[in-house]
Amino acid sequence: MRGVPLVVFILLSVAVAACDQAAPPAETPPDPAAAQPLSAAATPVISAVTWPPAASVDRTALAALPKTAAHAARASRVPVLVPSRRELLAAPVIVAREHWTSFWAKADAITVSLTMTRLSRNYPSIPPFRGARAVRGAPAFVTANEGIWSASWIENGVSYALDVECASPEAPACASDALVLELASELVYVGGDEPRAAGDMP
Predict the structure, then answer these.
(1) Measured between alpha carbons, how far is 23 from 44 in angstroms, rounded to an integer?
(2) Has residue 21 been placed in a domain?
(3) Which of 2, 24, 82, 153 has its CA 20 to 30 A from that of 185?
(4) Does some domain include residue 5?
(5) What are the pLDDT digits (tens) for 103-119?
């Protein structure tokens, strides 16, 4: 990975913050010159998107989306993946912005959110790293925090982060990573605003 995806960096930042709160105060104040914020050295990187073939759009899932959500999906600047389960397509919220798109839906027992972004930040002081797990055939990170399971991976040149939360923390469905991995495998492509090459028909 050339850059650190924002979603992964956010997860790492939360973990670091939690460790800092648990650690005792340092006896020697840190050197301000040495403690430069990571953001000062970060280089934003906008990844080139590899768009799936138009024929791979899941027309059934796209038709199941409410009109507003379908419109947002078509306006997305990144390839939009959504769960294929009907209960999660009934009333989702899809938000599309310049570099990212988000999906959110709630069913009776679970809440699912998916963030898709082509923007990452390259930190020279952080060597490239890759997840030890596999999601949709790609190296991935699979973690759990406060009962919420998360999976993040790169696909289509885009960073995807899927979060799954059960309505009850004690629910068997969220006792392991099985559900988040299952939902990730079921994601389908519903389109986006793919840039047209010069000379293409409108």
Answers:
(1) 31
(2) no
(3) 2
(4) no
(5) 999 998 999 999 999 98
